[in-house]
Amino acid sequence: FLHVVAVALSSPVSVLPIPGTTQIQVTEARQTRKVYYIGRNYNHTANGTIIQDQIYVEQLTPDGGITQPKPLILLHGGNIAGGLWLNKSDGGRGWASFFLDRAYQVYTVDTWGMGRSGGEVDIPRAGRSTVEGAERAFTAPERYNKYFQARLHTQWPWTIMRSALCDLIRTYISGQAIFIAHAIGSAYAIQASDAFPELITAHISLEGDQSPFQSYIRASEGINDPIPYRPYGLSNIPLTFETPITNPDQIKKVSVGETTYTDGLLSNFSCILQEDPANRLINVAKVPVLFLVGEASVHALYDHCQVAFLRQAGVNVTFTRLIDQGVSGNGHFSILEKNSDQITLLVAKWIEQNLG
Q1: Residue 324, CB-side half-sphere exposure with 13 Å CA sphere
Q2: Is residue 162 very low, low, confident or very high in pLDDT (cuts 50, 70, 90)?
Q3: Is 108 helix (H, G, I), strand (E, B) or coil?
């Protein structure tokens, strides 16, 4: 089941204003765009058979040609869509254009149940969130000041997926690909790395949303109330451990570190990790990871837990707090923030220096 549309885009592109807003100019890289629907299941209903579980993919090819050896697959987080990678909220060029200008083949994906891959699904982060909830957690945490790092935010400028990703790479990409994934998109990259590591060169995780064994669901409110989640450590579905795990209760866990407060506000979470010696993730460990965390993001409180779990499991992880590279003031949606070009440069340099 495949639908293809090819569109040649010129530069610049004028964006019509929504009533009550200011018109902006968007300048994308010159490209040819193809659209695919990949993967499917048939649901036999009383009214007939419907196709579901397909995902929407855009293939972006730079007009100047492709010179980079590995294509990039960009995976977004929860409650949004692949358009996140095309433009920033102030009208600036998005990450897709940045990498197209560097002669990469780029694929953007609307993950299962979201955007143009819509349908009736029961998965976390596929529903709506309130304006206040999004501001508190992602776009304006400094207004709510619920955790210590929130005050530093300055940069906002006003299994189906696994199979479908495998189909995408095997069917439309010659060789391996690199995942660049934001938030819950990184969960799909982890699952894909487990299922077909031979097809993936690396995984760049932008604040991947899969803290081991639990979810810090109220962290953006400054509340220390994690809930049990991801029984296989980084996933709700089984992963391939060196010593096979048939029941998640077989994984021996231990609490590590301390939950701390700074100036009376939550500033760091303890972690739940595997007991030593840890059971290795033999497939996930074949895919190196670059993990980035923003200075002012709520993820600054707990993403070190995921990095520690990955390293325990044998994964080669480069863990970078953006502030340590002189990139300051970023929240969870650093992709869209004013200084995002500094972050794309860090990503591009890491790819070119470590992957060739």
Answers
A1: 7
A2: confident
A3: strand
Give the model confidence (pLDDT) of 260-309 as tens digits: 999 999 999 999 999 999 999 999 999 999 999 999 999 999 999 999 99
Q: Which two tokens stand for residue 224?
A: 């220390």
Structure tokens at 2: 């495949």
Cα(272)–Cα(213) distance, rounded to whole angstroms?
Answer: 7
Q: What angle do CA 342, 189, 134 make, to 5 degrees?
A: 60
DSSP-derived pairing of the beta strands 227-228 and 214-215: antiparallel
Residue among 67, 72, 34 at smallest CA distance from 206: 72
Q: Counting every residue, how long is the chain?
A: 356
With b for 16 or more beta-carbon neighbours within 10 A and e for fewer, the 219-242 pattern comes to: bbebeeebeeebbbbbbeebbbbe
Burial of residue 207 (number of CB atoms within 10 Å: 0-12, 13-18, 19+):
buried
Q: Is 117 helix (H, G, I), strand (E, B) or coil?
A: helix
Residue 20: is its pLDDT beyond 80? no
Are the CB atoms for 206 and 183 separated by under 8 Å? yes
Q: Tell me how far apart the alpha carbons of residues 107 and 327 are, in angstroms, rounded to a whole number.
A: 26
Q: How far is CA 291 from the centre of its chain?
A: 10
**pLDDT at residue 116 above 70?**
no
User: 149 and 300 in contact (C-beta within 8 Å)?
Assistant: yes
Reduce the secondary structure of 254-306 to three states and give it as a string.
EEECCCEEECCEEEECCEEEECCCCCCECCHHHCCEEEEECCCCHHHHCHHHH
The pTM (predicted TM-score) of the whole model is: 0.75
Omega of the bond leading into 69 within 30 degrees of 0 (cis): no
Alpha-helix residue ranges (DSSP H) falling in the chain: 95-101, 131-134, 141-144, 160-172, 185-195, 303-312, 340-354
Q: How confident is the model at residue 16 (pLDDT cuts 50, 70, 90)?
A: very low
